[in-house]
Write a structure and sequence with these properties.
Blueprint: H1 2-29, H2 36-59, H3 66-71, H4 78-83, H5 89-110, H6 118-139, H7 171-181, H8 183-195, H9 202-231, H10 242-267, H11 271-293, H12 309-329, H13 331-334, H14 346-378, H15 386-406, H16 417-440, H17 446-476, H18 486-510, E1 512-518, E2 522-526, E3 529-540, E4 544-553, E5 556-558, E6 561-565, E7 573-575, E8 577-580, E9 584-593, E10 613-621, H19 624-641, H20 646-651
Antiparallel strand pairs: 1-10, 2-3, 3-4, 4-5, 4-6, 6-7, 8-9, 9-10
Helix pairs in contact: 1-2, 1-6, 2-5, 5-6, 5-7, 6-8, 7-9, 8-9, 8-11, 9-10, 9-19, 10-11, 10-14, 11-12, 14-15, 15-17, 16-17, 17-18, 18-19
């Protein structure tokens, strides 16, 4: 009972600190001294205390908390005891609120010298409101510290899929950091609209915070795809699942914002558009939270049903309503005095970029919510599958790669065809040579040839820009400053996207999936890979029981298995094994066994001799490039956030 009281007291302290922070900022607007730093620190301290109580209960397997009894067991390893906090609904809100209060403190500290600026005051006030709302969910309907009235000696344990891969320790925190991070540009957008300060440096200043959140979300999404690939056993990494789409929506609008806000800084354009994107991105994070925590969508990634749906959708409506209302109120002040001089100028291409990203976001949103709307109207269930999304994703991706080829080298305001050709001709010729070589080697997939041609061109444009940054820094005698230049991180992100795009296109175009039956010590060849089955192995630990297959792929030992985890579910799950290098992945699953099913938990295949097994073997070329590209995107985002502050750039 003591842990219940300690946890609830910590949450109450954090919530009251957020309320006090709102009141303090209102008084600051009337001339009082700001105490935002104090209340932010108290709110963060309260959340650290609440998280500390939960982690103590999980690590010590204290089943007096209902949450621990439902998501932990005495045999749960330490890493999965720790990650158990964000493995279910109530605990995930603890992590969410912890990151949010930490971000609020970071914003307050970052702008401490400008704490009397009305924009900073209003932005901090909005951050306190957002933090207070999410903490209130835990104070009310999603209490993570409910007391367990039953005296139990053993808990149910985590979900099997949440204790089978250490990526559970990284993917959700990065995803949440991305979602929560978009509250900063949202808060400043509201502050700029309230104060009418829409012409100041704040839009570009908030681009840095957006880049930080976008980078976290990007890496989180890629790691989620990697986790899905390694755990779920279907050999893919993205299935257009509704919850995957919920994470993609704010990523798309944030990407548009990151690009278009540059045009506002350079030309004074897109003021209404950029504020709308900042608000829409945050609104999509709230909508995504509703999708995953209300039970309205069925997904392997979703949390269980809860009573949070009305509160979350209400907060979403307030967010959208406030943003639309303020933009309408300030409409006359937001109009740009200038326009786009040429549709093929850099600002014109940024418009095309934004249309593609936002248009695709609309397509994803429609495909995600349509089944809900259809069921509400007709009472029948319908699904929207991969073909719908792929029909739009493919041409949009091609168009974006083309823009990445030319946008970094096109001039502002005007277009000179001769100058443009001199800037792209080396990349164009190299790309053409690469495509000709691929054709000579037998590549015939038009999608691969087009993607490689555009990817080489985009890489050339990024390298050209990076070379210019390095040359400029060398002339100044400060080579290190090149990595802090405004465009350096962005071009590394572009290179990461190029690597990622090539990996996706090549792997999906040339994937081969086979199902083979092998007796012990029998070998076969699948897509040039030598695969042999050498027998069974049984592994038993306090956490799980496994029936493994001893498989060799080109001399590398793999152990695909059928795993039964102790705890809440005794349902066996497949555990794939992967042999990966830079050129290809070989993905092996234990699909069935012959005879009487001696391999515990495995499906019994008819007409398969005893002692033989059925293996699923998937060969995917260049798939590891996807993960490498995601890492490069994260590095580039970090460099972009750490670049010189806007006022330093102006001075330079």
């Amino acid at each position: 009972m003591i842990l219940t009281w300690l946890g609830r007291i910590a949450l109450d302290v954090a919530f009251l600190a957020c309320v006090a922070g709102v009141v303090s900022q209102v008084l600051t607007l009337r001339g009082r001294r700001s105490r935002a730093a104090l209340y932010g620190a108290v709110a963060l301290g309260g959340m650290v205390g609440a998280v500390g109580v939960m982690q103590f209960a999980l690590i010590t397997h204290n089943f007096s908390l209902a949450y621990v009894a439902e998501n932990n067991a005495t045999f749960t390893p330490l890493i999965y005891s720790i990650t158990g906090m964000w493995s279910a609904l109530e605990g995930s809100l603890l992590l969410w609120a912890l990151i949010l209060t930490a971000l609020t403190v970071a914003v307050i500290h970052h702008y401490r010298e400008e704490s009397s600026d009305a924009v900073v005051i209003w932005a901090t006030l909005v951050m306190f409101v957002v933090g207070g709302f999410f903490i209130l969910l835990m104070v009310g309907p999603a209490d993570p510290f409910l007391h367990n009235p039953a005296h139990v000696l053993q808990g149910a344990g985590p979900n099997a899929l949440l204790q089978d891969n250490p990526l559970v320790a990284v993917h959700p925190p990065l995803l949440y950091a991305g979602f929560v991070g978009f509250s900063v540009p949202f808060a400043f957008a509201i502050a700029m609209l309230v104060t009418g300060r829409v012409h100041d440096r704040w839009p570009l200043e908030q681009r840095r915070w957006t880049v930080l959140a976008w980078g976290s979300l990007s890496v989180g999404i890629v790691l989620g795809a990697w986790w899905s690939y390694q755990v779920l056993g279907w050999g893919g990494f993205w299935g257009w699942d509704p919850v995957e789409n919920a994470a993609l929506l704010p990523w798309l609008t944030a990407t548009a914002y990151i690009h278009s806000v540059i045009v506002q800084d350079r030309r004074g354009l897109f003021r209404i558009w950029n504020l709308s994107l900042a608000i829409a991105t945050f609104a999509f994070t709230v909508l995504g939270t509703f999708f995953t925590r209300s039970g309205v969508l069925q997904s392997v990634h979703a949390f269980s049903s809860s009573t949070l749906g009305p509160a979350l959708i209400g907060f979403f409506a307030v967010t959208v309503g406030a943003g639309v209302g303020l933009i309408a109120w300030r409409g006359d002040e937001l109009r740009s005095p200038v326009g786009v001089d040429h549709p093929a100028s850099r600002e014109g291409l940024f418009i095309a970029n934004n249309i593609l990203f936002v248009g695709f976001a609309f397509v994803v949103l429609l495909g995600t919510v349509f089944p809900l709307l259809y069921e509400a109207v007709n009472g029948n269930q319908v699904t929207v599958g991969t073909p719908y999304f792929a029909a739009v994703a493919v041409p949009v991706s091609v168009a974006l790669l083309f823009l990445m080829c030319i946008a970094p080298v096109v001039s502002w305001r005007t277009v000179d065809a001769g100058v443009l050709w001199r800037r792209v001709r080396i990349s164009a010729w190299v790309a053409l040579v690469v495509v000709v070589l691929l054709i000579a080697l037998g590549v015939r997939h038009w999608s691969v040839l087009v993607a490689v041609f555009l990817s080489v061109g985009a890489a050339g444009a990024a390298i050209r820009t990076l070379n210019g940054v390095v040359m400029s820094a060398r002339r100044r005698g400060d080579l290190w400053s090149a990595w802090r230049a405004p465009s350096a991180g962005g071009m590394i992100v572009h290179l990461g996207v190029v690597v990622l795009a090539v990996g996706i296109v090549v792997s999906t175009s040339y994937t081969t999936r086979s199902e083979v039956t092998l007796a012990t010590h029998q070998r076969t060849v699948i897509d040039g890979q030598y695969v042999s089955f050498d027998g069974f192995a049984a592994v038993s630990t306090s956490l799980e029981k496994q029936t493994q297959l001893v498989v060799s792929v080109d001399g590398h030992a793999l152990r695909p298995a059928i795993t039964t985890f102790n705890g809440r579910s005794s349902q066996p799950v497949g555990t794939p094994a992967i042999d990966s290098n830079l050129l290809r992945d070989v993905y092996v699953t234990f699909d069935a066994v012959g005879g009487n099913g001696a391999a515990s938990g495995a499906q019994v295949a008819a007409n398969v001799p005893a002692g033989s097994v059925v293996l699923g073997v998937t060969v995917e070329p260049l798939l590891s490039w996807l993960w490498i590209g995601g890492l490069m995107v994260g590095v580039g985002s970090a460099l972009s956030f750490g670049r010189r502050r806007h006022r330093d750039e102006v001075a330079a």
